[in-house]
């Protein structure tokens, strides 16, 4: 569908802005825990291992379990209403986090957050794929991707600032209340566009048949594994990096976290927008180019982030933050644009949810948790945390290689998946 057609319901750019706001609440909640590591450890007398549990497994388990069933519904029902309901749920659980009086109550609240946030990503990217044509999706996905870095800045810098004045519980309450409000009004702002494929929304492919179809698409499988390993590399550093700044350089925790969020976050925002524009331009030449660009950027980001982890001074760490953020913010755009290009509309939301489930297990479950466990076993100090991150960050090198291999199968797999969906002529 064209953007003009989509605009008959909701202007595509208004829809994108509304999804951007929802996504900021989504990621601010995730990063708020990393910004409040000190107060949480002090209040509940826990170590890095338990904090890693909050960052990873407590959030991820039901996020992954709920993601695919929710996406199956999104392939048939209103994606906007699903996102709105999810926003209300995770925001309510964010408020509940601020009410917790024991470590396990916080863990339970994080599980609820995971279920709610499972309703965002796959339906949101499916919506954008119907609002924007392939040659415009790179920029649209990049703008939506800004949620990661704006959320990081809000959670890692804004959270500690609020906590310093009003207490850590207030930070959770304020963020949750704002998300609740916006979730309730989202359906008044955005209406679902017509779906891009030729198949009626109710005609979903049987789940077993879908799994078999996706297994026969090597580029999809390789991109999922590569995206997961790349996320493992970047997310573990994104969650634990502020603690490295605080512990290694003797900086006040609030200052360290705002510095980290500012340097890496702003560079990431810039990188994401720049790569979005470049991806759109390169996609006109060949749809192999977005993934090629993503692989190169991921390799470079991994080098820079590993160097930043071991920087001998705060000055050098801040200098390395610029290329780390630029490359780290941009590499995912090529992956997501290629994914939307390869997948037909008939099962785009479900296949995207499966893709994100695999990547979330690697990136958000294993990454932060593994780094935290290694750090706790070695002493809960700056050196132990650097060692933990040095185990997880190099996964980005493997991810870049897998993406490079997947690049050569994109066109063949797109045709195969379109035929499986019964819509070989789809322009989407």
From TrEMBL:
Membrane topology: Multi-pass membrane protein
Residue ranges of every copy of the Major facilitator superfamily (MFS) profile domain listed in the record: 15-411
Residues spanning the membrane: 12-29, 49-70, 82-101, 107-127, 139-159, 171-190, 220-240, 260-279, 291-310, 322-343, 350-371, 383-406
Cellular localization per UniProt: Membrane
UniProt keyword Membrane present: yes
A molecular-function term among this protein's GO annotations: transmembrane transporter activity
GO cellular component, one term: membrane
CDD domains cross-referenced by the UniProt entry: MFS_spinster_like (cd17328)
InterPro entries in the cross-refs: MFS, MFS_dom, MFS_spinster-like, MFS_trans_sf
Keywords: Membrane, Transmembrane, Transmembrane helix, Transport
Keyword Chaperone belongs to the record: no
Record's protein name: MFS transporter
Species of provenance: Tsuneonella aeria
Lineage: Bacteria, Pseudomonadati, Pseudomonadota, Alphaproteobacteria, Sphingomonadales
